[in-house]
């Protein structure tokens, strides 16, 4: 029998003292790569995200709990392959338990506001006394310096303050948030990369370190990668709908059964598109002969392309464009996405598992999107209920059955 292949983070223990989105997502990336992730939650109600609808269980998904053991579906997705330890870190006995666990861990993750960890005596300086080579990663809205460091923050607020919202939507409409959580999903990627880099450095030097990740910092870095200077100096609108300030044609266009996205930035692309459209005259039109002119005259350009697309179904347009090596795809709604053949062929959606009931009817979860030739990355276990693994985690850390029972009596776990 062939032994299972080792995953790169096998043997790495992560204490995940985070809640909501960014922290649990970061810990989820590490779990998918093989780390043992112990999610530390308050006894009883646990992570406050557990009270965020929709909820999933044996009866499917609904905006209200249908059964007492229904669990928030975002929590079920973000905490796959983790263990749950119910622990009151705010009490002296709970702090002692945490310190003992830290001595066995490699990584500690938290996403409390700056200053809170010091009050709880779980800051980096406090915990590294129990584990000198600890990798400690702090994720917060604005980091530990600057005038906003003490501000509360959520993803949409960060989108607004970073400039992303001002760039999203149409020129004649209001600023608009992106359809998904952007800062809450990008910051965990930066944090995960940083943790891996710190682990690599620890391998070389034997030293741990403190990592600081700010949602605001991460999103500003992404927004500023766009041509902000062009928008400012040339008076371009910050919100351009689905157009791109540096290319044309680049937009969504109506079809008979929905919309398609066409991206034809290069001269060859434009030439092939005019051939598909049966409009060779557009190639010689003085308004469209160069990319710069097409950008300048984008309104009549888009009208010409739309006159062609609106007479055809999406599949016909997409097939013709792709055959001509022009980037084009359908604008999918969520039902389209679930049934998309590429999604199905790549196995991008998995059943959403409940710890007690197995697959939640009518619900799916994203598969880990990165593939490795040398090991299987991804998730195989359901997210745990609050405190589901408390006894096992404490026993592996050296606590006796009597000690665990005493902690339960005191309400520490």
Spans of at least 5 consecutive residues with low confidence? none
Helix/strand class: alpha/beta
Measured distance between first and last alpha carbons = 40 Å
Q: Please write the CATH class name of the largest domain.
A: Alpha Beta
Strand order of the largest sheet: 6-2-1-7-8-9
Q: List how many beta strands DSSP finds.
A: 14
- CATH topology title of the largest domain: Rossmann fold
Helix percent band = 25-40%
Strand fraction equals: 15-25%
Main beta-sheet strand count, sense and barrel state: 6 strands, parallel
Give the count of helical stretches: 18
The residue-averaged pLDDT reads 94
Which CATH architecture of the largest domain is right? 3-Layer(aba) Sandwich
Using the alpha-carbon principal axes, give the shape: elongated
Structure write-up:
By secondary structure, the chain is α/β, with parallel strands linked by helices. It folds into two domains: 13-222 and 346-410, Crotonobetainyl-coa:carnitine coa-transferase, domain 1 (Rossmann fold, 3-Layer(aba) Sandwich); 250-337, 2-Layer Sandwich (formyl-coa transferase, domain 3). 38% of the residues lie in helices and 17% in strands. It is built from 18 helices and 14 strands. The strands form four sheets. It has a six-stranded parallel beta sheet with strand order 6-2-1-7-8-9, with helices on both faces. It has a three-stranded antiparallel beta sheet with strand order 4-3-5. Strands 10-11-12 form a three-stranded antiparallel beta sheet. Helix 1 (22-32) packs across helix 7, helix 6 crosses helix 8 (215-223) and helix 7 (183-205) packs across helix 8 (215-223). The radius of gyration is 26 Å and the shape is elongated.
